[in-house]
Amino acid sequence: FNYYYVPGLSPWPFLVALNIGRLCLSLVMWIHRRVDFMVLLLPVLGVLLCLLCWWRNLLDEVDLGFHNRYVVKTYRDGVAIFIFSEAIMFFSLFWAFLYSRERPSARLDLLWPPLGVRCPKPFRTALFRTGLLISRSFYCVWAHKAMYSRDYRWAPIIGVAYSVLCGAVFLRYQFHEYYINSFSIADRVFGRCFYILTGFHGFHVVIGSLWLLVSIFRLILGHFSRKRHFGLVACFWYWHFVDVVWVFVWLLFYLVIG
After folding, report:
1. CA-to-CA distance for 140 and 238, rounded, in angstroms?
2. What CA–CA distance (Å, rounded) separates 164 from 230?
3. Residue 196 Cα to chain centre, angstroms
4. How far is it, in rounded angstroms, from Cα 194 to Cα 183?
5. Computed from CA positions of residues 234, 201, 87, 128, in that sequence, does the dihedral angle turn out positive or negative?
6. pLDDT at 87
7. How do residues 154-193 score in pLDDT, each as one tens digit?
8. Cα dihedral 122, 124, 128, 131 sign
């Protein structure tokens, strides 16, 4: 007897991998100005379409009762490993920043931040964005508790919608900060560390916001219940991770050097 559901042959993993390979190739060619930017849209649309079909099959398996607690446990372990891998990536970026800060090279005149760089102020929009993310975490917890209370109608939808709004406002102020900064990504190691780390974090905010939007539609359609809402829980785990990363970004890039 096998505790785990074994699905049949599916074309979606192969098609997703094929489109991701096409996307990487198109991106490299676009960087070298061999193709137009519109060429990137075809593999992106292919990846999204294949993922939607793949996720649709997973939802059908849930509706048919194939996902028991053993299968859900594998999903939990997979999401945990994914978040851990993301944490390792951010740790490497933090390490690069701290190493450059503690041992500035002679090209930086042994100064950190480099001469001529005006650091972003920690108590202006950066503190406001930090408050947005922290309040959003509380609303995610509130929505999660509402699911256990069998309030499937208003509280989870309001909590998730508020989280999406906070993410949109956060991105708006981050782009504004990029516009008014006195340095760019070309300003040696300081600019590269700042823009790569905050840019990666902003990309995670975009992905998390899209995930929350999908969760709102699933809440409206009644896909979640008290005993079946791991898709929503995984989204909240991801958002809490993004919030914790930003707290460290604010402490190191804004408060310490500001």
Report:
1. 11
2. 19
3. 14
4. 10
5. negative
6. 93
7. 888 888 888 899 889 999 999 888 888 877 777 777 778 8
8. positive
Nearest to 190 by CA among 247, 248, 246, 119: 119
Beta-carbon neighbour count of residue 70 at 10 Å? 11
Assess contact for 187 and 117: CB atoms under 8 A.
yes
CB burial of residue 186 (10 Å; 0-12, 13-18, 19+): exposed
Count the Cβ atoms, other than its own, within 10 Å of residue 97.
Answer: 23
- Cα(207)–Cα(10) distance, integer angstroms: 25
State how far the Cα of 104 lies from the Cα of 111, in Å rounded to an integer: 6
Torsion, Cα 171 174 179 183, to 10 degrees, reads -140
For 5-29, the pLDDT digits (tens) are: 777 788 988 999 999 999 888 888 8
Phi, psi of 196 (to 5 degrees): -70, -45
C-alpha span between 218 and 156 (Å, rounded):
11
This prediction has a pTM of 0.82
For the record, the structure tokens of 228 come out as 């079946």
What is the greatest pairwise CA distance in the chain?
68
Q: How many residues does the chain have?
A: 258
The helix-helix angle for 230-249 and 155-180 (nearest 10°) equals: 30
Mean pLDDT of 46-58: 88
Amino acid identity, position 66: F
